[in-house]
Amino acid sequence: MGERSLRIGFTLQNLRDLTEAKGAALQLAHIIHGLQGRGHQVTVLKPQPGRRVLLTDDLQALDYGRLAISNSPLFKIIESGIRRLQRTLKLPYLGLFESYRFYDACLNNLSEYDLFHERSELFSIGSALACRRLGKPYVLSLDADELFELAYAGKPLTGIRKIFATWM
User: Fold this and answer.
1) Greatest pairwise CA separation for the chain in angstroms
2) Which of 3, 28, 37, 107 is deepest in the core (most CB within 10 A)?
3) CA–CA separation, 56 vs 41, rounded Å?
4) Could you report the per-residue pLDDT of 27-68, keeping only the tens digit for each?
């Protein structure tokens, strides 16, 4: 029996540069190329400067493709105001706007895909929430427990950041 080709949404909410030939970027490039080599369609969704999200099927063209999803002007105004307030009051970063942007991008661009794959990053839940809403399988790759790594490095999360990261 033949293997069915899948449409895979590969979401990278926090990894900005996938063209580096080292570390997580290199590992992810090998995973993506391996899936493509098996005949699967892999579409990468990743952040771009200017609070946009890039959608591309060509890993080599990540910096050149421009099929971007922009947010409404109202969302950008609200986000800017809340970020300014957050900085002024020194409130903890929780990645809520980035997660919402990815949730929205997944719903509007990858809803017909068979599954989503994401590399674990702290405060990155947009594609997981989209999978839950769409009833799609969600594959999460992780190298280590990020909360443990931070604690081991002497930078443990505390307060609301720890509660939120544990929930995520």
Assistant:
1) 60
2) 28
3) 11
4) 888 888 888 889 999 988 877 666 667 667 766 554 433 334
